[in-house]
Amino acid sequence: MKKWNKIGFMFIALALLAAGCSGEEESSADGKVELVAWAWNVNVGALEDAIAIYQEEHPDVALKVEDIGRLDVYDKLATGLAAGGVGLPDIVLVEDDRIAGYLEAFPNEFANLSELGFDKHKEVFPDFKNELTSHNETSYAMPFDAGPVGMFYRRSVFNAAGVDVNAIQTWDDFLEAGTIIKEKTGVYAMPLDMYKDDPIFRMMLSQLGVFYYDEAGNIDLTNPKVVQAMEMLKQFGEAELLKDVDGWNGIVSATINGTVATIPFGVAYSGTIMDQAKDSAGDWGVFLMPAFEEGGNRAANIGGSSFMLVESSKKKQAAYDFMEFFTTDPEVQIIALEDYGLFPSLSTVYDTEAFTSDVQFFGEQKIWTLFAEEIKDVKMPYYTKDYSLGLNEAMKAQASMFNGEDPATALQNAAESLADRTARDINQY
Amino acid sequence: MKKRNVKVRKFGLYFLLLVGALISLFPFYWSAIGATNESGSMFTKPPTLIPGNQLLENMSNLNEQIGIGRVMFNSLFISITYTIIALFVCSMASYAFAKFKFKGRDIIFTIFLLSMMVPYHATIIPLFKMMASWGWLNQYQAVILPNIAYPFAIFLMRQNMLAFPTALIEASRIDGASEWKIFYKVVLPSMKPALAATAIFLFMYQWNSFLWPLIALSSTDMYTFPVALSSLFGLSRIDYGQVMTGVTLATVPIIIFFLSLQRYFISGMLGSALKE
Questions:
Q1: Chosen domain end from B9, B25, B53
Q2: Hey, are the CB atoms on B138 and A269 less than 8 Å from each other?
Q3: B109 and B29, same structural domain?
Q4: Domain that holds residue B38
Q5: What is the complex's ipTM, to 2 decimals?
Q6: Using CA atoms, how far apart are residues A297 and A290, in angstroms rounded to an integer?
Q7: Using one digit for the tens of pLDDT, what is the confidence trace for A407-417?
Q8: What whole-number distance in Å separates Cα of residue A94 and Cα of residue A266?
Q9: Chain A contact for B205, CB < 8 A?
């Protein structure tokens, strides 16, 4: 009897405790504003440093940054939006490839930044970033970091094979160089999760100025340029220059243990290398993606993110003022690069010392200058709200290509299946 | 001859068990090793398999990132409270379903079981709206209460309750015991093994629960372990040392919980003294 009573009491006590313990704190309304932002990982630190600077002139504004996993942000955001805009923050960080999807699905839930006056900043951001953050000529997101692509390479491997990086101008050159490297050192040219992810393909598309969809929203997988990219990838596969790895961790693993000579990725990958492969400092360098033909475009982009403001927020203006400061203030963007490895899209910082100096880890190369130059030439990819379906079909096409199917056929099949899933038209060439 | 045969067979059996044990223990060993080494070292060739000296460093980094104490408290508080309340509710419900005769009992029970088939994701948005309108978002009860009547736990307990001799309940009634008294003085004490099994199940469910806590809790200081660990994954900057330290810490309570209830679990399995 006693024992069960005890448990009963415990249960009641715990229930009371549960009711009493709550994390929600009502902020007092004496002119002070507390903004809430959702962001992930290193972006949290950048926001926190920025508010500290901002508060020197705006002591009434505070910022609470909730550190949420990158993909988790989307689950929370989608739930809040679908539930009619409850439980949302004032500011949310969204990757560029998701923006179009949110704007198409929830056109009235995000603050119209053109109306708030953000258009005057268009000149300081690269064109593709302005386009990515707009919908129907209206701006809905403030550009933050970008992902200009670099080929991160190991100097020692290239030296051992006697290959000169500067001689690699085209993908054909790189195919040749990769073969020599593989013969002499046994090291693969690039890592790729061959049957589950298509980052190299996507970077090639970005370079060629095409994507899964075109500007009109039609399926563009049958575009000769898209086929060309897939064919190039096939050549690398057949020459056994691609190390088949398992997901993101596999790429990191291949980077650290030196089984690949280059890793093509967005600029943020420099941070990954510096974090995970500390021992190899100085052995790294960066060159631009090889062109498809002599003198062709070598600029591409993968990844990058921007900040959106929630329309229903009661602190919209305060959130706008702070985020305008955050995204356009050079000091903040320099901190973002130096302390957090986030490469800003704000072009006014590119001629500052932080961007023009040598980077020791990358063999004294001026890698930030390289990326800053590259970013001007990046072309706009059309993600649409069906980006993830396109990604899925492209991955399947890549897998069947590596399994022996002809690239054009694989892409044609992918286009048809994507048309079934999205009710979009396929471009005819 | 026969003895030797037995020995050989025993050796074979133990060998298989040993291999099985090694395979299932390796991930734990691996994460513990990862917790004591630098971030990149788990990817080296050959892999690092010996403990390093980075444990304290990883611990303090992780603590700075997610606040280990707070997250551990949140997770323990939510899981333990949930287990106690849910065990209480589910055992009462299962007792009613097993031993009381009332109109529509079987239909209600069937509906209950069918509700297990509703995909969890379908209920998230209505549930979220409900929690928002009560002002419960980002509070413990938003995570604890929604699943306290857990269909599978009720089903599990009911199967055990069915085996309880009705005659004993009737005898207690004749002796003048109240229904309440019968439930927790006569029925529940003999249900310890079933309660232990259900408790383990409920605790594990809540401890590992990810999507709902992620959505219902919005501030970092309210996070449970899985949500906090997930926040360590950015796009390209992942400190694997921190991740492994967090994963190792998150498994400790569950191991302790299981081991402490395992005693009941096994003794109950072996020594069921009741016979119909």
A1: B53
A2: no
A3: no
A4: 1-53
A5: 0.80
A6: 8
A7: 999 999 999 99
A8: 17
A9: no
